[in-house]
Write a structure and sequence with these properties.
This protein is α/β, with parallel strands linked by helices and about 575 residues long. The chain is built from 20 helices and 15 strands. The strands form three sheets. Strands 2-1-4-5-6-7 form a six-stranded antiparallel β-sheet, with helices on one face.
């Protein structure tokens, strides 16, 4: 529900903060005072397009901020907000939109930046604006489907079940079509796949084989240098050179000296132990060097063989993957595709059986959906027809036709069309072909009235210019319909008719004042006394008189009784 709307620098609205309540919020004022501007500002919060031309003269920016209270029934909205990482745990939604002279726009939802597209999606869960453009949307088949499907909970459940089966059926059909398309290329592709599998299989690749080969090739390629290093190191350790004795000989001499010294002084006993351990370690190192040197041999043939093997691996890696693991993975995919191709006939037969079984389920669910829609269409059309009679169209005929379609679609296998005739003796025709603007407006109001008690998806509704071209008894009936909708939703309504204004639960007055070169629109709630005076002004169209005040009081009193009856009927 819309709690507050605050506007800065939006056309005539310099700075306005409006508090809205539950039930019916009526906005009245002189023509040109800025009532529609306030609705335009709300539209900005819902994601409607806002031009920089709307910025108040002399200002560089405009800003609109709205505070909404949320309830637990708005599951779709909660999921959408969660998907955008927007926290709504406190049950409030604060939306801010700012537009600058340069045309830059900023949108914040609970402090998080969102795009205009996301804002429109959020707005669709918050407010339903009932105006001329929205009436035209009623003529679209998707809108008529939505109206009908939301009317009956059983129908909503049946539609969900149908869509689940439809998704499976469509997926299998797509898979079947793709396999058929692929079959045309199988002959040529089969030869290529078999060649790739054969080439990789013949290589007999092993995991990490390339790393082992590289190490072996590196060793064999530098065998001569390695042999020189080994020989020199061994000679220094154990054989000795012309420039001096071997390291082991020198260490052995040090060891002998320390051993002899210990007979006279044992302070170097620890030093002796370390030298002895070093001598043993060096002996072992010399032995390993000797053995390694004896095993080392130049093998040009083996090196050539290893390099050829490495060339095979490199060639396969260039063709099928960066590593041996990638090549082997590619081979697995090739083998799987070969298996799929070789099992094509069997797979296609299985797919066709699955499609046939799903299509039978789909047919049953579609028939069930059609039956539920036809039943709901009769009930809904009858209820709408009753509201049209109350709205001053006693001779009107309204029907909703649900007929089977020739194919399965995402919302069933039906066509939905609304038919209307304003006068007896006239043939019923498609609503889009016969309804005038005024008639369409009343039809839309009748639909909103019937749907209000069943549709909890959008908590707030705006009626913009609903009273255009009506008066007298029809105006009274329109007022009662709006008041009835307000029993189930928060309603904002701009009106020039006292019959509608007297139904208000909250009455807001919009006034325009001028000071020098500046014009400012202000919005304020009316007290009960002020409200009576405003209704009297609206009813008389001239200066307020005692008679017009008495008439206004009577209208308000009658409106309270009517609303109390609606409330009792709702509870009952």
């Amino acid at each position: 529900m819309l709690k507050t709307l605050t506007v800065w620098n939006f056309a005539l609205l310099e700075h306005v903060q409006v508090e809205f309540g539950e039930g019916l919020n009526i906005l009245t004022g002189e023509t040109g005072a800025g009532k529609s501007i306030l609705i335009d500002a709300l539209g900005a919060i819902l994601g409607q397009r806002v031009s920089s031309d709307a910025i108040r003269t002399g200002c560089d920016w405009l800003r609109v901020e709205a505070v909404f209270t949320l309830d637990d029934e708005s599951l779709g909205l909660h999921e959408l907000l969660a998907g955008q990482a927007i926290d709504d745990s406190e049950g409030l939604l604060i939306i801010t939109r700012q537009v600058t002279k340069g045309g830059r726009s900023m949108v914040l939802v609970n402090g998080c930046h969102v795009t205009l597209t996301i804002l429109k999606q959020i707005g669709a869960f918050l407010v339903d604006i009932h105006g001329q453009n929205e009436n035209l949307a009623l003529l679209k088949e998707e809108s008529q489907f939505a109206l009908l499907d939301n009317y009956d909970p059983d129908l909503t459940e049946a539609l969900a079940a149908y869509r689940q089966t439809y998704g499976l059926w469509k997926g299998k059909k797509q898979e079947h079509a793709e396999k058929e398309q692929s079959a045309r290329e199988y002959a040529q592709r089969l030869d290529m796949l078999r060649w790739q599998d054969k080439e990789i299989s013949e290589a007999e690749l092993k995991e990490n084989e390339d790393e082992e080969l590289e190490a072996e090739i590196r060793k064999l390629s530098h065998a001569e240098k390695i042999a020189g290093f080994v020989e020199e190191s061994y000679n220094l350790l154990d054989v000795g050179t012309g420039n001096g004795s071997a390291v082991l000989t020198a260490v052995a001499k040090v060891k002998k000296n320390l051993e002899d010294m210990s007979r006279y002084d044992d302070n170097l006993a620890n030093t002796y132990t370390m030298v002895e351990e070093a001598y043993i370690s060096l002996q072992e190192a010399a032995g390993e060097l000797r053995d390694y040197g004896e095993s080392l041999e130049f093998q040009p043939a083996k090196l050539d063989k290893l390099q050829n093997r490495m060339d095979v691996i490199d060639r396969l890696c260039r063709k099928y993957g960066a590593t041996i693991a990638d090549v082997l993975e590619h081979q697995q995919k090739v083998q799987q595709e070969l298996m799929d191709i070789e099992n094509y006939d069997e797979d296609m037969a299985k797919l066709e059986r699955e499609i046939a079984a799903l299509e039978e389920k789909l047919r049953q669910k579609a028939e069930h959906l059609t039956n539920l829609r036809q039943r709901a269409a009769g009930e809904l059309a009858s209820a709408i027809g009753g509201q049209l009679v109350a709205l001053g169209m006693p001779q009107a005929a309204f029907h909703i036709r649900v007929e089977p379609a020739e194919k399965y679609l995402g919302n069933g296998a039906d066509t939905v069309a609304m038919y209307f005739s304003a006068n007896p003796g006239e043939e019923e025709k498609l609503l889009s072909k016969v309804a005038s603007g005024g008639e369409l407006s009343r039809i839309a109001l009748a639909i909103k009235t019937v749907a209000a008690s069943r549709d909890s998806s959008v908590p707030s509704m705006v009626f913009d210019e609903i009273d255009t071209g009506i008066g007298g008894r029809t105006a009274q009936m329109v007022a009662e319909r709006i008041a009835l909708v307000a029993q189930y939703k928060q309603v904002l309504c701009i009106t020039h008719l006292p019959q509608i204004a007297c139904m208000a639960d909250n009455h807001l007055y919009i006034a325009k004042t001028s000071a020098g070169d500046s014009t400012v629109t202000q919005v304020r709630p009316l007290s009960e006394r002020e409200r009576i005076s405003e209704i009297a002004r609206m009813a008389s169209g001239v200066d307020v008189t005692t008679a017009s005040l008495d008439n206004a009081k009577e209208m308000v009193s009658h409106a309270k009784l009517t609303k109390q009856k609606f409330a009792n009927d709702k509870v009952g």
